[in-house]
Specification:
The complex is a heterodimer of chains A (about 90) and B (about 200). With about 90 residues, chain A is mainly alpha-helical. Chain A has helices at about 1-15, 20-25, 30-50, 50-55, 55-85. Chain A contains 5 helices and no strands. The longest helix of chain A is centred in the C-terminal third of the chain and has 29 residues, at about 55-85. The radius of gyration of chain A is 20 Å and the shape is flat. Chain B has 9 helices and no strands. The chains are: A mainly alpha (about 90), B mainly alpha (about 200).
């Protein structure tokens, strides 16, 4: 898990301090895209190999919708309070 | 992008379900730690080299940082409360909320460090979040929302929902805030998701 945060911070430093030439930095986009697609593929494999997940996809979908509503509502409510309280500034 | 992502996952699910032996899958997923490290290196470089972001931050002052912080808090509190309704433990629901709509990254992170089941749930939750945001942004604009229009999009307001916000809102200031907020939230996803799931 620490490797995740370490890689992120290392990337932030490399990108911000321009430690690598521009054309190497341009490759970062492909690194992200390629890495994501491969990881999503292995995520698919792991989901497919687990009959318990495949059988409960409907339930997972419904739970996902409820959680998504919760996250959207929570962020809107807090931001509305912030917006109204900082009005007139 | 979403279409190609969904196709890749469905092909993975079908192959994992039928053809590929589970031994291979195990070794593939142990390889994925290295993949994940490279991915986050790329995410970091992309965010870090965005010089415009720092300039804008200085221009608008530090109060702007409150926007992504409040959106992060609201998202996590929201999923924790709705997760309670579903009987989910705090670490799972809060980590899913910390995806902030970045479905691909939160999905693979949680698959890798926790379980494929929670990864699938995080992926779908954050896909739905983006879809809900796309529906809500024009509605909120019509109702006269100002900075709060940035809230539903979460991390996506720096890229996928940014054009929608700039089309529906006529203040350029809000478009800039939207970009800054999305970038800060994007940087928080790979930090908060692993931290919250370990709670």
């Amino acid at each position: 898990m620490w490797i995740i945060i370490f890689s992120l911070i290392l990337g932030l430093l490399i990108g911000n301090l321009q430690l690598l030439p521009e054309y190497v930095l341009d490759l970062a986009d492909y690194l992200v895209l390629g890495g994501l697609l491969l990881l999503l593929f292995t995520m698919g494999l792991q989901i497919g190999a687990d009959p318990q997940i495949v059988n409960s996809l409907n339930q997972i979908g419904l739970n996902a919708f409820i959680l998504a509503l919760g996250s959207v509502l929570g962020s809107i409510i807090i931001m509305l309070v912030f917006e109204l309280s900082s009005q007139g500034e | 992008m979403l279409i190609s992502i969904i196709i890749v996952i469905i092909i993975g699910i079908l192959l994992g379900h039928s053809i590929i032996p589970s031994l291979w899958i195990d070794s593939l997923s142990s390889l994925s730690t290295i993949l994940l490290a490279f991915l986050l290196l790329g995410v970091g470089i992309d965010l870090g080299r965005n010089q415009e972001l720092l300039h804008k931050l200085k221009e608008f002052g530090l109060k702007i940082i409150l926007v992504p912080i409040f959106i992060a808090l609201g998202s996590i509190i929201g999923t924790v409360l709705s997760g309670k309704l579903l009987g989910m433990p705090f670490n799972e629901s809060s980590a899913i909320g910390a995806g902030f709509g970045w479905y691909s990254l939160s999905g693979v992170l949680l698959t890798k460090i926790y379980s494929a089941k929670l990864g699938a749930l995080a992926f779908l939750t954050n896909v739905f979040r983006e879809v809900i945001a796309i529906v809500l942004i024009p509605v909120m604009a019509r109702l006269g929302a100002k900075v709060s229009i940035v809230a539903p999009g979460g991390a996506t307001t720096m890229d996928t929902t940014l054009p929608l916000i700039s089309k529906t809102v006529d203040q350029t200031k809000i478009v800039v805030i939207s970009f800054i907020s999305g970038a800060v939230l994007s940087a928080l996803v790979p930090i908060l998701v692993p931290l919250l799931i370990k709670l």
